[in-house]
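Give me the fold.
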Amino acid sequence: MQTIEAPLSNQLKKFFGFNTFKGDQEAIIQNLIEGNDAFVIMPTGGGKSLCYQLPALMLDGTAIIVSPLIALMKNQVDAIRGFSNKEGIAHFYNSTLNKTESRQVRQDIMDGVTKMLFVAPESLTKEENVEFLKSIKISFFAIDEAHCISEWGHDFRPEYRKLRSIIEAIDRVPIIALTATATPKVQEDIQKNLGMTEARVFKASFNRDNLYYEIRPKKDVQKEIIRFVRQHIGKSGIIYCLSRKKVEEIAQLLQVNGIKALPYHAGLDSASRVRHQDMFLMEDVDVIVATIAFGMGIDKPDVRYVIHHDIPKSLESYYQETGRAGRDGGEGICLAFYSYKDIEKLEKFLHGKPVAEMEIGMQLIFEMVSYAETAVCRRRQLLNYFGEKYESDDCSEKGMCDNCAHPKEKFEGKDEVKTLLQAVLGLNENFKSKFMAYFVAGNASSEIKAFNYNNHPLFGKGKGKGKDDKYWEAIVRQCVIEGLLTKEIENYGVLRVSDKGKAFIKKPTSITLIKPNDYSDVDDGDIITPQKSSGATDETLFNILKDVRKSLAKELKLPPYVIFQDPSLEDMASRYPITIEELTNITGVGQGKAEKYGEEFIEVIERYVEENEIERPMDLVVKSIVNKSGLKVYVIQSIDRKISLDDIADAKGIELADVITEIEHIVQSGTKVNLDYYINEEIDEADQDEVFDYFMEAESDNIDDALYEFDNAFTEDEMRLLRIKFMSEVAN
């Protein structure tokens, strides 16, 4: 143990220029200086870095800081060097250094210049590095982002599991483990694995009261993002996507809409990643579009919003990524887009993994689903997940989450809660939420049948109109939050009825439950061919546009729907396009259609906007990027080469109906295709002419109406192909 004479506050002022510590910082540092292990759980922005930076500067020797990301190391080293006139005071030691740089790092350490050495866990497994570290004086080990140790953590790194034995081999000095996200299960796992169950635990509140949390259904997501960023122009933001491809696409979309944005993902070379990160830190760009690798430990206090284009794979990931907003205590908006489709994708990622890993992954996804779909206070649910009770009414009073700002429909849930709790006890408290929801709803899944529980007297007790398994999952979530049910830590996710829940069964009392949102009817946010318009339609303008369409149709001797369908007119009457370019962003209007029929419509709309002094919505001028869909390109090229549609489907491993859908999108966007080579093989030309005549006279191009008209003489696929031929030849 080393004696430090000057008060810690003086040291803080001397090295960092701050007058006071935040939260538990002083106690954590004092504990470390006294030679004790510490486990620090502190939210992003709480000041974790200082807990090892200050003692490292004060103590003899070099502190070894284990950090998972090269970008994170560089950022921290730059920050520390900024507080010192010695370049060698902090170094990182990883695979990016050449031999000369590596030698310089070692020399600075041996000369006693370097107080902090940042290393990746992989570097510590190399024998030569272990031998070198044995030869120097180490003040302590800091394990940053310690959740990487746990298989239940959101960024599990197998190398982290080896740290304890490596540290023991080097020198048994104090260890400080730090993380911004640890559920009780992860906390226990970290301490066990690092052999620090006796360590003093410092756990700050996970509540970030300046952050606003919102989940939106994933509809027209790209337009929503453009509109949101424009409303916060000049402010710094991060947009997270799950795939590199989506990162590039969104970054490009923002750029063509005049927003200073750059991509960041592992597919970029190291120099580009560093440059993009630095440009964001230096405010040369406003928005970084990134995969989850970006932002870990990045010290940028004024990020004003974090958007999740795709829902993350765990609540820990979500919490840590949203925690990068508003670290200075100012505005921080956390907006995420959610759909069932996203969850299906996340579940697919788990297929083929070891059973244990798959079960953990599924449980983490379920917790994310619970949060996304909840109708209760998001802050309350989030803190509950991290083992913290949120007693305050601040969120509801200030409207700091969407559920508190816009409360959902409530209902008396006494009977539902009693039914659920009795069912959990009736199955001996052996099952997780999804199983119980299926059981109560009377949904005889294969798992339920395997236990023969479909013949259990309580099976289907909660059956009723609108009361499916999704409904009961929502009841489970609310019972957990109310403390009537608990989830086991050891046997992760298994439901238990608490003492409070047992008391409720004996004497049920009134309990208010909240009706959850529905996220099933969503699209994937494709900006090129959105399926629906959004926003209120200007009925007066809509009727004017219908008249314009009618007169144009008469003049061209075409059915009105061939020119523009009703959803397109509704979208025009909601968003008031006044240029051909803007018209191409309207539902069902591609470049070809806009140029062929659009002139008269935009003239009428522009005149109407001027006469009625209408303020046009911001999202109107969203410019789209070319749809580079591999399937689209492949389909067009294959049609040009007259390849059978069945062969196209086989080559891509999809159904014929999916190929037809892709061709419908191509034609809808105004591209002409010639399928005669295929259609003529399948359908008699006389029959084709009859259908052609029908569509020319019909009021709409509805497939069901067409099939009914021809008494189902055609299959649905055949009728869709004939409609494609008609629209391609007549409309395009």
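Residues 1 and 35 are 5 Å apart (CA to CA).
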